[in-house]
User: Fold these one by one.
Assistant:
Number 1:
Amino acid sequence: MQVFRSLDEIPAALGPTVAAIGNFDGVHRGHQAIIADVRARAAALQAASVAVTFDPHPVRLLRPEAAPRLITPLPERLDLLAATGLDATLVLPFTREFSQTPARDFAERVLARGLHAVEVHEGDSFRFGRGAEAGTPELVEFGKEMGFAVYGHRVLTVRGVPVSSSEVRRRIAAGEMGMARALLGRAFSVCSTQERGRGIGSRLLVPTINLAAYDELVPAHGVYVTRVRIGAGAAKRSFRAVTNCGVRPTFGVERFAIESYLLGWNPEADPVEITPETPVEVCFLQRLRDEQAFPSPEALKAQIMRDVAKAEHYHRLAERLG
């Protein structure tokens, strides 16, 4: 997938496009449904399929006090968009100046002249232009004048729940990983690098890996069944794991951390090279319990072993069911 970070980067060779517009935070099942339609229409019209998104999230600039923590920061969002089979994504820098663009100018400059769009697809709730002045009805009128058709997509419902980025965030923040997975179409994950811990895992003789500081969306404090992926490309390793999200109250730690115990991993017999730049992804599968303080490190270790047994059962069952 090609990635363009300004209109000037779009080559003439891209030709006519069928475009989807949105923030696409999470690239959830609703987004996936729109993109599937875009790809099908692009193939039928012999056009390129393109997503148009924004960075940073517009609310971070316009109302920073209300800005959501992201489900998928831009690098992960682009990876997920690429996995859908799109031909290209246009990432528009959302600056103060850009936020003052009138809706008509946006339609003409970005969609008609920049992308040579023949069709534009969006969610029914999408707003654009200075002060969010326009939505689907206005875009339909611009399209008639500028030569592109507009399709507004109704909200997808999964298990009776309307799929939206805000609903996905709410479920993740509540630790409802099963429902979050149903809405996303995959397990929620956090991607970062390793941070050297305080040696707690070593003192407990439990090999753990800690994620570096992460400022976007994380699940509710607690203990989770997870899968941890370390590295990239052909060198990527995948481990079944148990992960604690929280402040580790048994040891009086106040700083939030994501600490994972890799099941069945012996670092001496099976060393894994991890540098400060090595990507680490933690995929959250199921919540086991709340985070809690224990009277002693020994009591904590005993609970970790009980958590491990439950996690191993979960992984065995999941693998058996495919």
Note: The chain has two domains: 2-161, 187-321.
Number 2:
Amino acid sequence: MQLAPFLVEHWLNTHELTARYNLAETDAKPFTIRELLELTGTHVDKLLDTRISYNPTLGSDSLRELIASFYPGSTANNVLVTTGAMEADFLLANILVDPGDTVIVQYPAYQVLYSVAEARGANVKFWHLKASEKFQPDLDQLEKLIDNKTKLLVLNIPHNPTGAVVNEADLKTILGWAEEKGFWVLCDEVYHDLALEAGKVPPYARTLSSRAISVGSMSKAYGLSGLRLGWFVGPQEFVEKAWQWKDYTSISNSPVSDLLAQLALANKQAIMDRNTAIARSNWEVLQGWLTKWQDLIDYIPPAAGVLAFPWLKRSDITGTDFCQGAFDQEGILLVPGEAFGQPGHFRIGFGGDPEIFASGLKQLSQYCAQL
């Protein structure tokens, strides 16, 4: 299986270690272990007494039960804990997709959501989200993409990089098609609980249909990316098949990550209150900045998550030119739209530390003033 180069990750790995202002971060402001223990009212001895041994491949029973509790109708038997959502997406593509299958993917997309299927020999079709349509999903276009070989539809709600969402009514329509035609819907929901406006994000897909598989993570919405812990919730047979693949990939997660994930999930509301407040505050700052530079840059407000996907109004500047210039001159890290197949755009994350974010935008203004 030959995988295509991962363009976004290559860009980030090339630039992030020397960036002064990382505005490419895609997650909420990271917690320190001390902050997490204090927020959850946990004594440090609980962490210090954790035995650093192999964890169960499926994840601990207590963690899987806790994850399942967020998906009514599912049990621990429907949950596989993975090394981030990335591994969940990778495993699912490998157990679900065969050569010749049709796989439909919301696009632009985080590359693991389609490149693994391509490497498996699938016929990948893109369901395009267009700036000209305010990144609103077009169900008529999607219906035309579905054929008698469709095995899998991949959704990302809220969407990376645009922050768009599929509303509940449309999601139910899509899941109805899946039940009628017999394909599966993989819904990557790593930003699910970070809504800029209440009521914008639909329920977890797995709670709406047995044809849905929900993928989650401690990274994006929770601000705990260093735990490298994700999961999927789906049919038990998929858990068992993916378990066989996981024996060849990561084998198991760290018991320390397992413990800290349980603390965070058990205190989900407090964590989301903190992270949502930061995201909303930073978004207000970013909106003001984008308004200031409206002659150069245009944008569509995201509905949820911590990402926006503006674009340059000048055709003589590519997204790569803009992002590389901002990095070279001011040490600012952004992600060019070309890494998502979207020339002229750039992705900016607004979930991080408010002081660093505001300082980064100030420096970005200095760069823009030279263009």
Note: The first helix runs from residue 7 to 15.
Number 3:
Amino acid sequence: MTVTIAPASQEDIREVLRVMFKAYEGKDAYINACFPRGLTDEGLEINYQRLLFLTKIVPEIYWEKATDDESGKIIGGTMWALHKDAKPTKAPLDGPEGTWENQTEKEYGQALFSSGGEDDESYWAQNGLPILSECSLFFVVAFY
């Protein structure tokens, strides 16, 4: 199989997320807490809209897709945050009403999300290291 990596359009992002949720099969605690109900149509759409909004307001975000050259299907992708001039600002995780089933699940997802990268960020700050890019979201290749 040959795969092509290319920029992802807004509509491609939905398919990248669908593939990612399918690949993890609802078994990844981080994905479940931060991006709940991704295996449902409603959950996929809510998470797509959340990430599309983030992509529109943060100019450093760049999406790529991995496409199977033979079938033309998207089989994976990634969301990069390409920080060229400044270190990233830490943004809280949030979503519209109905993203999480209840307030406890929302608070857990937010705490888990905010704890991610704390050690890295501390190391970068203490050593004055530049950040050129970071993979902000997953790269998944699902063979099906």
Note: The chain has a mean pLDDT of 81.
Number 4:
Amino acid sequence: MVGPMDVVKCIWLPRRDEMRIILQKYIADISLFYHIVHVPSLQSLVEDIYAGLEANIRVDVGGVLLLIAICASTTYAWSPPDDIRCLFSDCTEANAQSTFWIKEALDVIDHAQRTAHASMECIQGLIILFFVFCNHESVSFRARSVFMTAIAMATELSLHRLDDPQGSSMPALVRMSEAKKEIARRVWWFMVATDWTLAQFCCPQEGFYLIQKNQMAVNKPRNANDEDIIEGVEIRDRPATEATCISYFVQRIRLAEVCRGLLDRTPLGTTNSEAVVYKDVLDADAKINQFLQEVPDFFSLDCSSLDDLPVTDPRRSPFITAQRYMLSLLLHRQLCKIHLPYLAQGTVDPEYAYSRDVCLRSARVIFELDHQLQRENLPFFNSRLRLAMVLRSVFLASIALVLNACLKGDSDESNEGGDEVAGAWKILHEAQGQFPPAAKLLELSIQILRKYKIKHRALDILQQQVSGLSPYGDSFPMTPESANQDLRMTTIQHSLGTETESTLMEQHWQVLEGKMDLNTIDWDKLFWGIDAPFM
């Protein structure tokens, strides 16, 4: 019954043929980083929902939310190579639609909450939407709210007791087949891994996680491909050395456990001496390096034997290559971050020389990873800069190289160092058209170097690049986005030519004044201050 003051909202979905194309893109390029779905079941769900709509039958709210979240995620990640799918006029049109689908998803979430709806598909949709929010606006309040709603819904369905012998009689679990339980394990453990990892980042949730290890009874998901999960058939748990569609997910769980262990060692409110804090940094370094040594060979950067495998081998698939890039990026970003505060001290104090070396080495690895990915010529390369975590890693690495350049004496300055910094800025410059906060990151990076090294090869290189680029030249195709290109170029030229008048920037410079004591700088809070607390 609808009252006279009630508003009936209409939720739009793409046509069935369009949804199939969007789903293909999602499965091929996006799901590999958070594989919380069962592809055969998802494909069947799409057909069932559209069949229900055509028959004028009420469809599942959770399924609708899942499809809309996939639309939001896919249109956001749409890149020029996807134009051959002929779904949008170009990637700019696709990207612009992402916010429309986000609004649609929020309306469906509101309806689900009003009707107390809870389903596995709804949780999957919430998780996907959480990552869309993270890419659009970082780990914002809205992003965290969506994620916490997913956790609340999961506990409502008793997913935290999936493998609890005393919970097997619960109605929600009794109705679940073993195949559905396996997908539920993926969903639950993905939320666990995200919750524990999120506590590492500077946002209101820093140092805090919701899901307690001792308050859940859920086995880890099996290392199985989607094709292995069939109703009525025993699911085979493949060895970790065998590449599957969730190999990356398995490693993310391991990494999250490392993060949780490090957090538990230093409770909130604990004040430690500098020596104790640095010992914790070295312990974290040891755990991350141990993690690097224990990853399967197909995720290792040092495994040259992969080149000898046939191109049809799963370990050489585009999925695994993109996942190897992302996992390595995560690990080296973390190494760069924990050692960055000691970069300056490591220049003059042998006690911290190790931190300086590790910080710079990991920063260089981050950029080498980008070059390797470009050589692989994968579709993911074209949309990587739209991922907030990738941009955060690139900026962190660029800051390490810039600060190292600031700390060097003029006699130590080399062409190689200038080329490194210029290469980092080139990536940030390329990202501006895909990710607006990149312009702020680039400006901050340039200003830091110019503040302490008004004459530096990297500044000369960038000045030449900027001077040689026309806003409407071959480098920038005529699209709606290109209208803003001249504004971005002006911003860079302004950064190169004059001091910024931004009060926020001046606060950063004041922190960097004097001896540049990097221990006093919380780089995550610095990112947060410029609206870029990227996950």
Note: Residues 271-469+482-529 form one domain.
